[in-house]
Amino acid sequence: MDGPSENGDAIVGGSIVEGLEYRAGATETVSHELLPAEDPLEPRKRSFDHHMIETGVTMILEGLGLDPDHPRIKDTPTRYARMCDEVFSGLLSDGREAMNRFFDENHNEVVIVRNIPFASVCEHHLVPFIGEAHIAYLPHPDGFITGLSKIARLVDVMARRPSLQERMTREIAEKIEEVLRPQGVLVVVDAEHLCMTMRGVRKPGSVTVTSAARGKMQSDPETRREYMGMLRNP
Ligand SMILES: Nc1nc2c(ncn2[C@@H]2O[C@H](COP(=O)(O)OP(=O)(O)OP(=O)(O)O)[C@@H](O)[C@H]2O)c(=O)[nH]1
Ligand SMILES: [Zn+2]
């Protein structure tokens, strides 16, 4: 069978995956120009508007009755804007760039990367939720895998956005499916939400578990059970 593709961009002799180039038996770093065009429904900015962020933070400080010109906090708005570059960097990326190294290894057994720590921010309260992602994928039958660290990089991209845990979990699974065309992928995420611990219902230690499955992990209950077991009970 030819390489990973669902829509006619088949690999012939291991050379092209829908614009992603790799050589049989070799590792390739794929330049951004080769990646598929961004989804026009999901336009990505190139950078954040620091001026707007700084104005907003200044207003919050004022709203709290603090003096934003006080020496102790006068740099807080610019500091916050700089922090956004880091903690929301996933808004500037579509995730495909995170997986930019592939191996044509004829490996078609499961690959599992477990206990990938992440920190995200809940879109309702803009406070962190922190946890671990666990990922299993069954490569394309021809064996098409990515560098292990690239899976962790993808988690970072999806985490560094204001999000919901369910959406983040789904976005990781969907991106792996899109880029690697695996036979199946299963993503499980455990996280503690600070909006449930430092405020509101105040239940410190409560852990939310979400999963997203695609391909065989979704359609075949036996396969799903097997890989869920590997992710949950190592
Ligand atoms: N499903 C889901 N809910 C989340 C996530 N992060 C935060 N929430 C929830 O979003 C909900 C927002 O509820 P609202 O009633 O609009 O806000 P609220 O008054 O601050 O709610 P409380 O947190 O219950 O005080 C809360 O129940 C949060 O626990 C998430 O990742 N997934
Ligand atoms: Zn929240």
UniProtKB/TrEMBL annotation:
- Species of origin reads Actinomadura graeca
Membrane as UniProt keyword: no
Catalyzed reactions per annotation: GTP + H2O = 7,8-dihydroneopterin 3'-triphosphate + formate + H(+)
Which EC class heads this enzyme's classification? hydrolase
Q: Which family does it belong to?
A: Belongs to the GTP cyclohydrolase I family.
Enzyme Commission number: 3.5.4.16
Q: What are the residue boundaries of the GTP cyclohydrolase I domain, all occurrences included? A: 53-231
- Pathway(s) this gene product operates in, as recorded in its UniProt entry: Cofactor biosynthesis; 7,8-dihydroneopterin triphosphate biosynthesis; 7,8-dihydroneopterin triphosphate from GTP: step 1/1
Q: Which domain of life is it from?
A: Bacteria
Q: Which GO terms describe its molecular function?
A: GTP cyclohydrolase I activity
What is the name of the protein in this document?
GTP cyclohydrolase 1
Question: What is this protein's gene name?
Answer: folE
